[in-house]
């Protein structure tokens, strides 16, 4: 069973956040399948915006367009990050890095040279 939860090991979380452009209270959401880490999303909340600081999928180095299982992992992490943000009242979502290979554009985000961004409703459906 796949689960995505805030990282329990705070020392490991701190190490993963080291060097990222953090301005608020960041968290790392880890995606695991039967105890094996498949990837993680480093996020922070700031003035109603969820900022994705980093997306990481195991064995993916961002040198080429993601495919197959990697797309599933990155998409799931992005959606889980959005749900996390929505739980804490975020109304917007953005990245702290530029779009890669149109990943966020394909999901309806606007992009510029520095980030991808949009309303939370791009990811979290309100019905």
Using brief descriptors, characterize the structure shown:
7-stranded mixed β-sheet; globular; 7 strands; alpha+beta
Give a concise summary.
The chain is an alpha+beta fold and 127 residues long. 21% of the residues lie in helices and 35% in strands. It starts with a strand and ends in an 8-residue tail after the last strand.
Describe this structure in words.
- This protein has 127 residues and is an alpha+beta fold.
- Helix content is 21%, strand content 35%.
- Strands 1-2-3-4-5-7-6 form a seven-stranded mixed sheet.
- The two termini are 27 Å apart.
* Count of discrete alpha- or pi-helical segments spanning 4 or more residues: 2
Quote the distance from N terminus to C terminus: 27 Å
Report on the biggest sheet. 7 strands, mixed
Number of strands: 7
Class based on secondary structure composition and strand pairing: alpha+beta
Please, what is the average pLDDT? 91
Strand order of the largest sheet: 1-2-3-4-5-7-6
The radius of gyration is: 14 Å
Instruction: Name the helicity range.
Output: 10-25%
Task: Indicate the proportion of strand residues.
Answer: 25-35%
| Outline type | globular
SSE sequence, one letter per element: EHEEEHEEE
Q: Which spans have pLDDT < 50 for at least 5 consecutive residues? A: none
